[in-house]
Amino acid sequence: MHSKDLKKPDGRNITLYSNQPIPDGLTAPSPFPDPQHANPHLRWHPLRGEWVTYAAFRQNRTYQPPPQYNPLAPTGDPEHPTEMPAGEYEIAVFDNRFPSLALESHDPPSVTVPTAPANGHCEVIVFTQDPESSLASLPLSRIELLLQVWGDRTARIGGRHHIHYVLPFENRGAEVGVTLHHPHGQIYCYPFVPSVPARMLAQEREYFLQHGTSLLCDMARDEAADGKRVLYQDEYAIAFVPACARYPYEVWVMPTAPCKDFAALTPPQREGLARALKTVLLKFDALWNRPFPYLMAWYQAPTDGAAHPETQLHAQFYPPYRTKDRLKYLAGTELAAGMFAMDVLPETTAYELQQVEVSLEESA
Predict the structure, then answer these.
(1) Residue 271: which H helix or E strand, with range?
(2) pLDDT per residue over 321-340, tens digit each?
(3) Where is the Galactose-1-phosphate uridyl transferase N-terminal domain (predicted)?
């Protein structure tokens, strides 16, 4: 993996990545000449026992621009710069202009609940220079590079500036709130372990203390033995619809052997994980012969300096559709009680996805 660090005119950082050497002479553009001076803050939710971040300036962020004003496309006209430089590279990561968390946050307001500076970090990761592409259509070598980039970002930011958790994710589709359709994701770096991964980590830790093994690795082993919900499996990685799925087309992707984070992936694990991920993405798009919306979230060990042998790197996909033309809305029992209600069995949706044939070689 090759990388090159550049600085934008408004002071933000951008890093370019490629499987090949990146040429010298590239400059980092920005649609904005001046710094944002973002100053989000946190407010404590006493009933839920969790932080909420507030960043009112995000109301004015870029929203559904026409294709000719795509801020994630490479700059073609220096008089009208985008976020991306022209040149030979494969992936770019830059500081979010409209962050929900910012390392420089300071002086939170005084209100009726505890507050704190939102001292985290938010990045945008652009998967390709091609605005008409998608993560599913990228070659396996690019997906393997992406896994390396996520590891590099975690290593660079995690553990520094009191960052305790790094969460890469991709929102795809207007149905999940995407405002820019160029293939990209985000990386949120938190000064604490957020409530969802914290709860999962607690379950993993309790299981590890009782059994001495990884909860997720044991779940993957059982899914592989059962086979009813498996979508992809090789020696190093597996993808399956979990028996406890909360969304009809929910899928988990992970290494089969213990691996706490992206940096811990071996080359064979990374290759297997890329093939598993691409298989799932292709099956999604081929299921109804149209782009398939989802939230893809990658969970890994906290960056708090502890060993965390209990946890396992894995992705969870949350697609919003429950049928070809019906969305699954989170309503009364999901939002008010936190208990999901499923109208379809995971075995049924897994069977649908199993019947979708895809070819990794042809798509690459």
Answers:
(1) helix 267-287
(2) 999 999 998 989 999 999 99
(3) 38-194
User: Which CA distances in Å does 6 have to 73, 88, 94?
Assistant: 17, 14, 9
Residue 257's pLDDT is 97
Q: Which uninterrupted H or E stretch holds 69? A: none
Rounded to two decimals, the pTM is 0.95
According to the model, what pLDDT value does residue 28 have?
A: 96
pLDDT digits (tens, 9 = 90+) for 43-89: 999 999 999 999 987 666 555 566 678 999 999 999 999 999 999 99
Contacts from 337-341 at CB under 8 Å and sequence distance 24+? 340/246, 340/247
Q: To the nearest whole percent, how much of the chain has pLDDT over 90?
A: 88
Looking at residues 189-208, what average pLDDT do you find?
Answer: 97
Question: What does the block give as tokens for 190?
Answer: 């938190």
Beta strands 115-117 and 321-323 are unpaired
- Distance between terminal CA atoms of the chain? 19
Alpha-carbon distances, residue 50 vs 115, 121, 126, 269 (angstroms): 11, 18, 30, 34
Pairing of strands 91-95, 41-45: unpaired
d(CA 309, CA 312): 8
E-assigned strand segments in the chain: 2-7, 13-18, 41-45, 50-54, 91-95, 115-117, 121-126, 165-172, 184-190, 230-233, 237-240, 251-255, 294-299, 314-318, 321-323, 326-327
Closest to 230 in 3D by CA, of 283, 181, 302:
283
pLDDT tens digit sequence for 225-250: 999 999 999 999 999 999 999 999 99
Using an 8 Å Cβ cutoff, are 106 and 117 in contact? yes
What's the CA gap between 24 and 94, in Å, rounded?
A: 18
Output the pLDDT for position 49. 97
Measured distance CA(251)–CA(228) in Å, rounded: 13
User: Do 136 and 281 meet the contact criterion of CB atoms below 8 Å apart?
Assistant: yes
3-class SS of residue 126: strand
